[in-house]
Amino acid sequence: MTRPARWRPALLAASLAAVLVVLCLLSLGLGALQIPPGDVLKALLGRPTGPRIEDVIWSVRVPRTALGLAAGAALGLSGCVMQALTRNPLADPGILGVSAGAAFAIVLAAGVAGIGSLLGYIWFAFAGAMAASIVVYLLGRMGRSGSTPVKLALAGVAVTAVLSSLTSAIVLTDPAALDRFRFWSAGSLVNQDASTVLRILPFLGLGALLAVASAPALNSLALGDDVAASLGRKLGLVRLQGVVAVTLLTGAAVAVIGPVVFIGLVVPHVARALAQSAGLGPDHRWLLPLSAALAAGLLLGADILGRVIARPVEVQAGIIVAFIGGPFFIALVRRRRLAEV
Amino acid sequence: MTTDSLRSEEDPAGKTAARPFRLAFPPVSGTLRPRQLAVCAGLVVAVFVALCWNVSIGEYGIPLTDVARALTGSGDPGTLLVVQELRLPRAMTGLLAGIAFGMSGALFQTMTRNPLASPDMIGLTQGAGTAVVAGIVLGWDFGLGTQALGLFGALASALLVYGLAWRRGTTGYRIILVGIGVSWVCLSVTDFLLARGGRFQAQAALGWLVGNLNGRDWQQAAPLAYALVVLVPAALLIGRLMRTLQLGDDVAKGLGTRVQAVRLTVLLTGVGLVAFATAAAGPVAFVALAAPQIAQRLCRTAWPPPLAGGLTGAAIVLASDVLARELIPGTELPVGIVTGVLGAPVLLWLLIRVNRAGSGG
Predict the structure, then answer these.
(1) A326 and B121 in contact by Cβ < 8 A?
(2) How far is B144 from chain A (nearest CA, A)?
(3) Sequence spans of domains, chain B
(4) ipTM value of the model?
(5) What domains can you pick out in chain A, each with its CATH number?
(6) I want to staple A271 with a disulfide (CB 3.0 to 4.6 A). Which of A195, A290, B148, B282 is the partner?
(7) Which CATH architecture has domain B3-9+33-357?
(8) pLDDT tens-digit map of A102-114
(9) pLDDT tens digits along B347-358
């Protein structure tokens, strides 16, 4: 086995970091108030700038950018973990109903139980995400042929359909809830202050830790359940760890930005292709961080795009992502064989 | 096609088994299925009762006997006006939409050999929804109204799904998966429009999106009725042609069925049915999914029967509409909420059965 050239992974990491930095600067500068990059840097370094500029950057743009990075990374990680756990190229927190589970639980908490605070309903989001992911997984692997991409995707869509009809039953009877819901359900990074971002960070951090720690186990799982078991992996434990990680990451992200579909689907495929080109192979110790970085960039990029394409209105990031992700999904389906990951 | 449904076609008593027949004049031959006929007759009665019940409730109740009399055109003028001008259009819209949803569900399920492949799962209703919400929120209705927009949206998304699923022919599974992708994109466009629109427009749009029979008049019912006059016979004819598709594409081809042509015809007929029904009543959730499956079990056939499926759909929509109005006194829920909540367990149950039988992919 030839060792990969050392400089290629380093180049990959450096170029990803550069892209992320550029996206961050763009995200801090673009919007209803255009701020030139020089002023952005000045404000970040604490130097005096215009009176409104500092205010806008620190109270609006920085939380928004941080949220985009954190939530994007969370969705990318959970997509990568799900694709590895189910060995299914179509797995994604949105398609497999995990986001819908969290969303339904949040609407239930806010609309029926009257819980308005983020730290109050985030627990509902976790419960909903976990319940939905377990139900979909069990439904999808029933039957003789085990879990196939088609069965899992259909199970996810069915569970999503069920949950969304229940969600609209709640939302329609309460106009005030409807007004909040329709912004949140489109997947948006707008109107979040710094404290919201700080509050979900512990959950995201724990989820990310669990996800990254499961990387070696996911590598052995890629060889099949039997091989993984004979390599000494406790399959039940690996799955539990994966599900908890997905629940924490997806639940916390959905609680703040709403159900965003397709990030978790697109990103791991791109990460695999990049890892291949850098000579790294499908090793989850690389794929997970790559997915996190790519997804953070994708969500942030979608948010920036949404700010500039339809001025003066802003298009929610979730919608832009769906526009990129939908065709990607279809292209994936059209491939001759839906090869297992 | 599951093994049980094959088995259940055998009838232990032998009384209701399918019997072939041939007449000298008119020169017709076919299979007589007494059980299917009996079920259809029973369903017609059930639909009529549900229709009368649906008409009898409202601001002030009308006894069922008076409703039945008013439907035939007799009774006092006040009741006649309320029944024929105010309440019958709503009930008829529900009835016709139910028939259309049930039949198209049966066609799609037979074509893809998958009970889960109803129009709500493969992006047609979502496409109609996007077009209609665009009309409501952006005012882009070009004077066409909800009807034409819904029709346009469903047809466009059906062509898109079919076109994208085409790769040296189509397969049932590729249609389903591509449909899922298309429906996600449509949903996100709808979300964007909802978030962009004003509060009242959003409420109106969301009210339509769940499927609603409130305030329907003959203007909505009439186009649907004309469409059904053409599409229902077409669906019944194709239903016979495509039964070979149930055996798999290769076997069907071997038996002389032109698989791709039949599939395209089925798709167009099914889409036509869904499109007109959605345009009139909105996307009433899960009717197209559940009705054919219920009918299949009532008739004990090995495939979802189109006619019985349509009648079951009509009964479900009318009964759900009654329930939607009577459940919480003082408020009228949209009918789609009731069918959505009732249909959810049916969907999960189907999923479990399909996967267990190993025919879900």
Answers:
(1) no
(2) 26
(3) 3-9+33-357
(4) 0.74
(5) 87-334 (1.10.3470.10)
(6) A290
(7) Orthogonal Bundle (1.10)
(8) 888 888 887 777 7
(9) 778 777 776 665
